[in-house]
Specification:
Blueprint (H helix, E strand, L loop, with lengths): L25 H16 L5 E3 L9 E4 L14 E21 L2 E19 L5 E7 H14 L14 E3 L5
Antiparallel strand pairs: 1-2, 2-3, 3-4, 4-5, 4-6
């Protein structure tokens, strides 16, 4: 499947709530492949949601394998129609996003979550995650709800120019 271009702010598609996938069919599987391929093509990317590639469907991929802040790690995880069943113990931490390439921000997010969604095989999967993986899951769920991390910062004082390392 192809690597897709990433939609960036101020594209209005990033602010729209996505429609459910419903049934995992050939179209959903192709979307999952595009998400995985596009995420893998971006160095240090740990997640990507369908709206970020211009598709208004509730689907994302997350993979925090090898990330220094990860505790729980479910490997490469594709979920359709995700929902948060439990979220607790909010922690403030810096986030960035491929769709907001020049900025980062301090966002309070739950450090423990339980999320449910459909896998590419059509089975219901319940994922319990903590620390960085919990943050990544919630970040991607925000994308399918039409939210960016910028919508979660307390004030403009919590938004920063992204550091560029050469």
């Amino acid at each position: 499947m192809p690597v897709r271009p990433v939609v960036v702010l101020p594209d209005p598609r990033l602010k729209q709530r996505s429609a459910p996938v419903g049934t995992v069919d050939a179209e959903a599987l192709a979307l999952a492949c595009d998400l995985v391929d596009t995420m893998r093509s971006r160095p240090a990317c740990v997640g990507l949601a369908a709206p970020q590639i211009g598709v208004a469907r509730r689907a994302f991929v997350v993979n925090v394998t090898g990330h220094r802040k990860a505790q729980s790690c479910h490997g490469e995880l594709v979920l359709f129609d995700p929902e948060v069943l439990m979220a607790e113990a909010a922690i403030l931490a810096r986030e960035g996003c491929l769709s907001v390439p020049d900025l980062t921000g301090d966002v309070a997010r739950a450090s423990r979550v339980v999320v449910r969604g459909l896998t590419p095989s059509g089975e219901v999967r319940v994922v319990e995650a903590d620390a960085f993986e919990a943050r990544a899951l919630l970040h991607e769920i925000d994308h399918v709800d039409g939210l960016l991390f910028l919508d979660r910062v307390e004030s403009h004082h919590a938004v920063f120019r992204r550091k560029v390392y050469r």
